[in-house]
Design brief:
heterodimer, A: globular, B: about 110 residues, 3 helices, about 80% helix, about 0% strand
Chain lengths: ~280, ~110
Amino acid sequence: MALLVGTGVVAGGLGALVGIGGGIVVVPVLVVGLGYDIRTAVATSLIAVVATSAAAGIAYADSGLTNIRLGLALEVPTTIGGIAGGLVAVSVAPSAIAGLFSMVMVVVSVLMWRHLDTHDLLSHDANSMSSPIRPSLLRGTYFDRTSRSVAYDPQRLGLGASISAIAGMLSGLLGVGGGFIKVPAMAMGMGVPVKAAAATSNFMVGITAIASLVIYFARGYVQPIVAVPVSIGIVLGALAASHATPRLSAVRVQRLLALILLLVAIQMALEALGGEVYE
Amino acid sequence: MNDRRSHEHMERIIVKTIYTYGLVLSMTSMTAGLLLKFITHDPSSGPADLVHLGAGSIPDALMVVGIGILAATPLVNVVALMQHWARHRNLRMAAVAATVTLTLAVAVILERS
């Protein structure tokens, strides 16, 4: 029981810090570490995703980091992708998908580590401050740790919607929140500051997880004795981490995200090689 | 501009309030169920079933209700935001929220069919 709660605390902390659901920690620990069935682990992970999103969302709402309008706009393709992913999952070999997924994640994590430095973020914010007066429907504003107002207009919505649909599809295929795709897509592709991207992704992953969770609930894969201690732990971890996020530098958050992406890649590669985990 | 800021402030209050109530209710129910399970040495550990709550033990029922409330919280957020935007004639965002709600409803219908 203590192991399950501890798993939740670690997953919730990491999930809240980088805007992912924490499923990338929950699934491998439950399957590899504690020997649970993959379906039970994925169902528990999806509940963990919702719990992380809700717990961190309370603190993010106060900070103004969450761009609610952008998040919901991107949720349209994400949820559609999620349902499509769930349907595809029954006909395509999951180990092949996991192998492809791991390669994509390695590329994205390297790009995140090398290209998004402090200068890029600061110059982006400065440009946003002097952008035209007429704000777009999806404009976001928040106060950074020096109480400076940061405003930005998300760019390339078509690109963001397309990547969100792919993120939703991968979420439906693999049972994770998909935030590890959405955050770099928003930060690198749409010009959203990385902390706002993480908070917005956190808001989105809770909604995305519901579509898949419905299926696991209906098919009896949700085990309360596993899901409840993990969820309680995840809330404790997420609350602690989300209060720390406004004090962290953007560089630290982005580097942490890059490391998490590498972990996801390794996890996916291992699962692709040992395909019995999925069967 | 100020009008937009007050609307965004209201959106944040809606989201925060629903998250807070959803989380407190679900965590209370789940924690109570888990503690009861320990205290009563309840051996059952069946899968969650929201439809047949009465068939299981009280600790299991409390935990399942907690999970159900937690899972419903993001959806309630979307519906509340849709209502807020519709009331304030922000029809584009209301339509976006309605589309997300409908898409989630499709997932439920697909699974049931």
